[in-house]
Automatic annotation (TrEMBL):
GO terms for biological process: glucan catabolic process. Belongs to the glycosyl hydrolase 3 family. Its EC number is 3.2.1.21. It catalyses: Hydrolysis of terminal, non-reducing beta-D-glucosyl residues with release of beta-D-glucose. InterPro entries: Cellulose_Degrad_GH3, GH, Glyco_hydro_3_N, Glyco_hydro_3_N_sf. Keywords: Glycosidase, Hydrolase, Signal. It holds the Pfam family Glyco_hydro_3. Residues 60-128 form the Glycoside hydrolase family 3 N-terminal domain. It is an enzyme of class 3 (hydrolase). This is beta-glucosidase. One of its GO terms (molecular function) is beta-glucosidase activity. It comes from Colocasia esculenta. It comes from the Eukaryota.
Amino acid sequence: MAPIDYLVLPDHTILTLTHTNKDPELVKKIGAATALEVRATGIQYAYAPCIAVCQDLRDKVAACAKHFVGDGGTQNVINENTTIIHRKGLMSIHMPGYFDAIAKGVSTVMVSYSRWNWKKMHANCELLYCI
């Protein structure tokens, strides 16, 4: 069997922990490489890291804003853990990116497996349907 060439990029957690997400050019290069790899497979949808809004609709790769909401603030940076924060903090720190992505036409929003103040996001009807 012939070897398969593929590209492995750091996920959003690594980018956050290493502060490379403060380098906009690097983030753009990672996004462009991800889009190229996805298009090469023929897939028209990508579960891209965090929020990625497609700027050129000719790319035909639907953007997905994820992981709604508070995923970046979980205790001890543990996947599927809880983000302990008051509502004002959640709205001012964790929500703006989602509001912006929706306003700019993001195709879908993926709910996080995490929790907000111990309530599972998938069961949080207020945040899912009333915001």
